[in-house]
Amino acid sequence: MIAGNDKELKLLDKTSSEFAKKELAPFREENDKYPFGPFFETALKKAYEIEFFHATLPEALGGIGQGMAALSLILFNICREDASMGDAFIAFPVFNNPSEIENLAAAEKKADIYVLSGKVEYVVLSGIAAHALIPGKIAGQSGFSFFLVSLPDSGIEKSPPVLSLGLHACSAVDLKLENAKGVLVGKEGKGADYFEQMADRMHVAAGAMSAGIMKGSFSEAFEYTKGRQQGGREIINWSEVRMILADMAVAVANAEMMISRACQAVDTDEKGWQACSRAAAITIADTACQVTADGIQLLGGVGYMKDFGQEKRYRDAKHIQALLGIAPLKKIRFIESMIG
């Protein structure tokens, strides 16, 4: 997708693709049962060991010193096989832009610490994580702040897993906080600024996830239509089927080009890269929903069966569309940034 002539990216492309096919694809249906089944802890540990989580960290901090192109490449290949793990890479408050939420935790400074109280809904991965980044509002502040909390803290109560449309393996819980200790991240009242700075970059990653899901949906549909016979011939020879496949193939190619270009803009710090990042992600996320719907249609009745993965890709595409905030508000914020 993005590797080009870069030797390190080519190696990362090969490694992440092989990892996804071996560690994720065979267990896609089983992994999708969490939290009512086992969590894919073994695969996650292997991904950590081969430094997928270290892609964008500087070498001085134990990373491999790559940019957004590397992270996007990893996410593309992983989500092509199973998007369940993809969200673990960007499990910041990815499903909720705190600026769009009315009820935030109340934060109060006591001596040299902060304590948080209130309810925070849909905190991704908090059912199994040791820490979480919580948005909270300090009395008298116009904005919100981010606080790092220890989830085993006695002042934090977790709800049962929240059932949602897709990404079952990356489940969320609601948190109820009562005088829970929190470590302030950055400066007071600057949470919205930090979120937007993070979102500028992570929109590319979200777009790569959507593109990977599209690629997986197309590949499955393509192979199925070559082997499925109807009326005495493979259904790929029917003109209507070829037209749908053609639309899917064009959409996938366009998505890959957009992600590649967006990564280039981000990694080279081009003027206006923020708009490039967000525009690519918004477009690809919308397209992925249509492509995965076509992927189900081409498989007919079995397209809805978990064995084939197409229905899961559709759920995942819709879920990823909500990453980093509500989908319609992303478009409004995009034009507002241009006006501003």
Task: Give a quick set of tags describing it.
Butyryl-CoA Dehydrogenase, subunit A, domain 2, Butyryl-CoA Dehydrogenase, subunit A, domain 3, Butyryl-Coa Dehydrogenase, subunit A, domain 1, about 350 residues, 3 domains, alpha+beta, single chain, two-stranded antiparallel ribbon, 8 strands, 9 helices, five-stranded mixed β-barrel
Describe this structure in words.
This protein is an alpha+beta fold and 340 residues long. It folds into 3 domains: 7-90, Butyryl-Coa Dehydrogenase, subunit A, domain 1; 98-188, Butyryl-CoA Dehydrogenase, subunit A, domain 2; 192-339, Butyryl-CoA Dehydrogenase, subunit A, domain 3 (Up-down Bundle). The protein is built from 9 helices and 8 strands. It has helices at 7-24, 28-31, 41-49, 68-81, 191-227, 239-267, 273-299, 310-321, 327-339, and strands spanning 105-110, 113-124, 131-138, 145-150, 156-158, 172-185, 229-230, 233-234. A 5-stranded mixed beta barrel has the order 1-2-6-4-3. α6 (239-267) packs antiparallel against α7 (273-299). The longest helix is centred in the middle third of the chain and has 37 residues, at 191-227. The radius of gyration is 21 Å and the shape is globular. The two termini are 34 Å apart. The mean pLDDT is 88.
